[in-house]
Design goal:
- The protein has 13 helices and 15 strands.
- α10 links the parallel β10 and β11.
- α1 crosses α3 and α2 packs across α3.
- The chain is elongated and about 80 Å long.
- The N and C termini lie far apart (about 70 Å).
Amino acid sequence: MRKSMTLEEKKKIIRDVRAWIYESTDLNRIRDDELEAVIREHALLRLEEGSVLTRPSELAEIVSGVFHSIRGLGILESLLTDDEITEIMINGTDHIFVEKSGVVTRVDAAFDSEEQLREIIQRIVGQAGREVNESCPIVDTRLPDGSRVNVVLPRISAIGPAVTIRKFSKDPMTMERLLRLGSITPEVANFLETLVRARYNIFISGGTGSGKTTFLNALSGLIPPEERLITIEDSLELQIEGKPNLVSMETRNENMAGEGAITIRQLIRTSLRMRPDRIIVGEIRGEEALDMLQAMNTGHDGSLSTGHANSSRDMLSRMETMVLQGASQLPLPAIRNQIASAVDIIIHLARHRDHSRRTMEITEVLGVKDGEVQLNPLFVFEEDEDTTMEKVSGKLVRTGNPLIQTGKLKLAGLKVEI
């Protein structure tokens, strides 16, 4: 007796059963439970015809594979429902990788064909009202649960359709959860809550997968519920709860005619006419940086955003470059003055060698001196005696430098020393 079927045997049976279902069943008239029963019955017939002995769990996998390939997202369904998986990477039909606890591994699964993968891609982008095709081969979109999706089609992608899915957390990130995870200390949590209440403008920097959006979500939760918030993202990811006066906006790609695109920059400008108390931009990547800085400088204190950078100092350099993309005529000293007057605090995040995400530094942005923006580190991450090459141990430690820019604390009526 055979103990289990091979992956190729399962794939062939799934292909055969699905082809039979498409030929013999009116999928527009059959309910999901009826469809599942028909799939199970025909799968059993196919197994008997081939004299294949299989376990109940394998039959369930076949039925699920056929059903989800017709009505769902195929083999993606099981990966999306696995709460331990944070990222799914599809490199063509046969190479699927997932990230669990910061570690990337290959999955023992594959799509039946490129046609099937393309069908699933069209279901994904169609759900969000977006398009992806040979004329528009790159798209950013999201799943109904909020998971972020990036799709790149051939011939831009040389390996076949490439799909990257950043899973959407079921539980919104809060300061309490960051404390439990050890990303921050109670002192830091109190410090950040004070800064948010006092309407300091805060930028979160870090590399890919360092937790920028997660941290932004936690900071957003500290905003008083009576304030009006406008959030702007490429794809809606933030899970801000308890804020009744909230408007969430996302960008839109151009259509097949090359028209209709709505950019982050346009949305920032639109948000200024929506009477926001605070503007939250998921990520600044280009010329929209100038609009965000101008918003921070014109009465929209307490705004938040993120950006890719390797350090707090690097975030400033990146901002300069991004502003120049949209206003190349501006002299560098003017740009640096704009940054120094708009951004109050930079929080830098990073992924360590053990794949853990940590808050590395909280830095105050001061004015410009001798042509350079001055930084005042307030907290820095220090490894302790328990750290090893395999496991990082440590915490954020206060540097002893006082917060210099205390004007907003006084305006907020907060008589604290931080």
